[in-house]
Amino acid sequence: MLTFVARRLLALPLILLAVTLLIVLVMQLVPPEQRAAAYASNLQQLSQIPEIIKANHLDGNVFEQYWLWLRQAVTGNLGFSRTSGQPVLATLLTRFPATLELALYTLLPLITLGVWLGGHAAVHRNRRVDTVIRVISVVGYSVPSFVLGVWLLVLFYGVLNLLPGTGNLSNDAAVRLLTGEVRHVTGLVTVDALLSGRLDVFWDALVHLILPVFTLLVASGAGLIKGTRASMIEALGSDYIRTARAKGVSERVIVRKHARRNALLTVVTLSALSVSGLLQGAVIAETLYGYPGVGSWAAQAAALGDMPGVLGFALLTATIVVTVNLLADLAYTLVDPRVRYA
Length: 342
What we know:
By secondary structure, the protein is mostly helical. Helix content is 75%, strand content 1%. Helix 5 packs antiparallel against helix 12.
């Protein structure tokens, strides 16, 4: 087991190198004149594009630019993001808690509802409830998250005016946060508000989470429902399940004690993949709802050709995905003791 974990951890730097090099290769497709515009802070500097290109080595080949960035990155200096006006590392540390909060509020209902609905559909296969759940999952899987987000924004914010449409706090709650009435402990606004005893700020932050969380939930939950259903159907059709039925074991015990346990390996894999999907969906959801996380910042950085910002976001997401997949592999040994890693 320790050897397996060590191998996976040693592979992490190689994966990060490959991901960041790929990003630099893609960014090279954008002409240096357009990338230089991200380094101009005012209209006057736009007339100094050649100087900006030379100063930031934007006219060099891909390996030269990558080496210059990598030499700084290994010292902890990920460069300066013109999009945020801060060093990349400072931007990540400032904005990541908002994205983490969004992901946490999405993951709990995502895994709970996804596994329950998928299992329920499998148990009642080809019945009305199965048909309804399958239709819901197909619709959720088919509708692009940005289209769903626009619909929700127009309906609940524009037409009904029931929910806030932008940001993670109202102006009043943001003032309380800035003035220190809400202590900065974890960086998660809802948690810090509860720790500070400010239920009004907690509720305000929670209401702002509803639309982006629901958008991510539908986009990521559909695949989890379909995968859980397929895994449960396969488990329910196994020989040991038929043997248990022949022995007179009740259907409830068969489903809860045997089928679900053996379907958990697939569920663990799909849950790990859902984290990757959440990171991708966060870029769309945060941009659409003006949520101040790393996703909306990364989208702005990509649009402006802010290469240090894009590379910093790529490093963060690749590290999270590799770590989550490692944890999923380790979880296999808890779900199924027969699984062993050399």
